[in-house]
């Protein structure tokens, strides 16, 4: 160790505290502040850089490499890292934290002292140690300090730590080495952190997007298609674009919660008992409509109560309904050529508006079991079935006969019911006239 190195080391660790950062959009390939054992980096020549390990305030090691051969000209001291796996990186970032001595604060070194050092790298698929050949290394940059320290800073125990970050890429081999060239500076390399950026796994618009590595070209975005989360489905194809700095940009499309599920706190939750959701979409579960229920979670439709029904074309949001009650106040008006039947609508329409009426006729003899249907001999105006008004005119009847008419009220769920037909009955003798 040279005199300069000893002079530097005597005061280097006074007050040094390294802050360890964690970034969700960075994948760290190497961080010397996290290595508990020896780094095992190589120096060329052997008496150039010195490896020093000290403990910080949390009793964690600080691996530092230092060189301060400022008294002698023509310095060419190299420090080489171990092989670092590239993993998924296409471009890496090298973050250096270091101190550098102001040459003007060191006497008698005006011709030999430098205030910069050089950073190199070498890509290779081989992880085993190879012989160090400086000519194989590619220069990344010359590194200078924004702030250098002086003898007065040492006396005041002030350490001026510089941070520099350099990009390297595109990377194509399985791994690489870093190398640091000293050409006569007084340097303490306090930490080296190598990482690459990624757009981290995220959930957006009910879709998940995987970790994605940006392209080397910082102006080009990576389009990523999302996958809908559980109990969700695509409305428009969900997409995000991964930017060069590891930020997700330009959200497009989205997923929506499936049938029987609603969005809650970024996920799709089953509808609670008493609620339902019949369609996929960005809507909440709805309370079961009147005369319906759902006892369990995750109902797509509510079941009707006993005696109530849902017609085939009724929407799930519509209340369950039932058949109407019979028509009321059935009357007839008879003259020589026509018989008019009139009635009032039922008191209970069953909760529906599609009310219609059917007319059925029976012609009976003196005995009750002598009845027969008589539709074929009669004409009905406007028609016999599917009446929408509460009146019908009967033509072509026979004089001096007894006719029994049944007026049935119906709606859209009448066919689903097993209850007796709701009818009003009237018997007309065609040998009588007038209104009854």
TrEMBL record:
- Chief location bin: membrane
Coiled coil region boundaries: none
Per UniProt, residues of the Eph LBD domain are 26-204
> What SUPFAM superfamilies does the record tag this protein with?
Fibronectin type III, Galactose-binding domain-like
Citing just one GO molecular function, the answer is: ATP binding
InterPro entries assigned to the protein according to its UniProt record, in alphabetical order: Ephrin_rcpt_lig-bd_dom, Ephrin_rcpt_TKs, FN3_dom, FN3_sf, Galactose-bd-like_sf, Ig-like_fold, Tyr_kinase_rcpt_V_CS
Catalytically driven reaction(s): L-tyrosyl-[protein] + ATP = O-phospho-L-tyrosyl-[protein] + ADP + H(+)
* A Gene Ontology term for the protein's cellular component: membrane
Q: Which residues form the signal peptide?
A: 1-24
Q: Which UniProt keywords apply?
A: ATP-binding, Glycoprotein, Kinase, Membrane, Nucleotide-binding, Phosphoprotein, Receptor, Repeat, Signal, Transferase, Transmembrane, Transmembrane helix, Tyrosine-protein kinase
Q: Name one Pfam family in it.
A: Ephrin_CRD
Question: What are its E.C. numbers?
Answer: 2.7.10.1
**Any idea where the Fibronectin type-III domain is?**
323-433
Compartment(s) where it occurs, according to its Swiss-Prot or TrEMBL record: Membrane
EC class of the enzyme, as a word: transferase
User: What kind of membrane protein is this, topologically?
Assistant: Single-pass type I membrane protein
SMART domains cross-referenced by the UniProt entry = EPH_lbd, Ephrin_rec_like, FN3
What's the name of the protein? receptor protein-tyrosine kinase
Task: Supply the source organism for this entry.
Answer: Pagothenia borchgrevinki
């Amino acid at each position: 160790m040279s005199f300069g190195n000893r002079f530097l080391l005597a005061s280097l660790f006074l007050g040094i505290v390294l802050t360890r950062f964690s970034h969700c959009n960075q994948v760290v390939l190497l961080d010397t502040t996290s290595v508990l054992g020896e780094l095992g980096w190589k120096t060329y020549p052997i008496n150039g850089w010195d490896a020093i390990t000290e403990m910080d305030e949390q009793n964690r090691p600080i691996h530092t490499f230092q060189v301060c051969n400022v008294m002698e000209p023509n310095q060419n001291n190299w420090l080489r890292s171990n092989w670092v796996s590239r993993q998924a990186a296409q471009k890496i970032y090298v973050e250096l934290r270091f101190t550098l001595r102001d040459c003007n604060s060191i006497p008698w070194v005006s011709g030999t002292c430098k205030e910069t050092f050089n950073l190199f790298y070498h890509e290779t698929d081989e992880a085993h140690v190879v012989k160090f050949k400086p000519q194989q290394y590619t220069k990344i940059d010359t590194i200078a300090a924004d702030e250098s320290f002086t003898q007065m800073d040492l006396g005041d125990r002030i350490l001026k730590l510089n941070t520099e970050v350099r990009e390297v890429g595109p990377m194509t081999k399985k791994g690489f080495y870093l190398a640091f060239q000293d050409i006569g500076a007084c340097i303490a390399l306090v930490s080296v952190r190598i990482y690459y950026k990624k757009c981290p796994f995220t959930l957006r618009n009910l879709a998940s997007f995987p970790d994605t590595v940006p392209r080397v070209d910082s102006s080009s975005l990576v389009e990523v298609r999302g996958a809908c989360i559980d109990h969700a489905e695509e409305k428009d194809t969900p997409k995000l674009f991964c930017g060069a700095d590891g930020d997700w940009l330009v959200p497009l499309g989205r997923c929506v919660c499936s049938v029987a599920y609603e969005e809650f706190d970024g996920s799709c939750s089953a509808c609670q008992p008493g609620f339902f959701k019949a369609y996929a979409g960005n809507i909440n579960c709805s309370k079961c409509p009147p005369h319906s229920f759902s006892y369990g979670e995750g109902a797509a439709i509510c079941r009707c109560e006993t005696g109530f029904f849902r017609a085939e074309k009724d929407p799930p949001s519509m209340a369950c309904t039932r058949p109407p009650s019979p028509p009321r106040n059935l009357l007839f008006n008879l003259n020589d050529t026509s018989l008019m039947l009139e009635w009032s609508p039922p008191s209970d329409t069953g909760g529906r508006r599609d009310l219609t009426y059917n007319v059925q006729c029976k012609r009976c003899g003196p005995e009750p079991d002598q009845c027969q249907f008589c539709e074929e001999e009669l004409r009905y105006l406007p028609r016999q079935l599917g009446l929408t008004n509460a009146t019908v005119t009967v033509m072509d009847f026979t004089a001096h006969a007894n006719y029994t008419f049944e007026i049935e009220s119906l709606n859209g769920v009448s066919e689903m019911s097993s209850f007796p037909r709701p009818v009003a009955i009237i018997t007309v003798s065609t040998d009588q006239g007038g209104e009854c």
